[in-house]
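ok, trying the design again with the full structure, not the truncated one.
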């Protein structure tokens, strides 16, 4: 889906933009795990159904729809950004005095795509979020299964996310 910006710019054509990627359908649960304090982490369970008709899926790939791993990573980023407020300690660790910043992927520490993610697949993400050694950063360990929490494992990843694209 595309739209047009209404912001006036002298001598310039209106700016075209694409609808943001809906990388997660629902966040089913968020819970704090471990002892309160330095070792506490968030456990997030979320779902995404791969749908060939989504506008951002055009061309991935012509004969069979495959969900790109970069879209999976965007889902992790969106989930973590949405749930940080559930842990005051992690929220303060990431945002500090920078509440207007955003969360970005800093580094991909590991990624294993074990099975293809195809049109119609219901993906269940389980994300463990903990503080990174650096202020302004968190680590997310992810298991993604097809069909629910006991389904086959399709992706495993460990991702470092940072405030404002590396402004730590």
């Amino acid at each position: 889906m595309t739209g047009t910006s209404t912001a006036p710019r002298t001598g310039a054509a209106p700016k075209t933009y694409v609808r943001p990627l809906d990388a997660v359908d629902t966040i089913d649960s968020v819970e704090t795990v471990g002892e309160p304090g330095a070792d506490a982490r968030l456990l997030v369970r979320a779902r995404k159904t791969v749908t060939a008709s989504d506008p951002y899926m055009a061309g991935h790939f012509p004969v069979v729809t495959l969900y790109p791993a970069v879209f999976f990573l965007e889902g992790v980023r969106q989930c973590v950004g949405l749930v940080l407020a559930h842990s005051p300690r992690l929220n303060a660790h990431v945002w500090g005095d920078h509440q207007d910043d955003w969360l970005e992927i800093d580094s991909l520490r590991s990624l294993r795509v074990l099975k293809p993610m195809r049109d119609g697949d219901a993906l269940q993400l389980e994300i463990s979020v903990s503080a990174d050694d650096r202020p302004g950063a968190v680590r997310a360990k992810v298991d993604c299964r097809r069909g629910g929490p006991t389904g086959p494992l399709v992706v495993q990843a460990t991702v470092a996310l940072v405030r404002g694209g590396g402004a730590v």
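Keeping the full-length input from now on. Strands lie at 2-4, 16-18, 26-33, 41-49, 103-113, 122-131, 137-146, 153-163.
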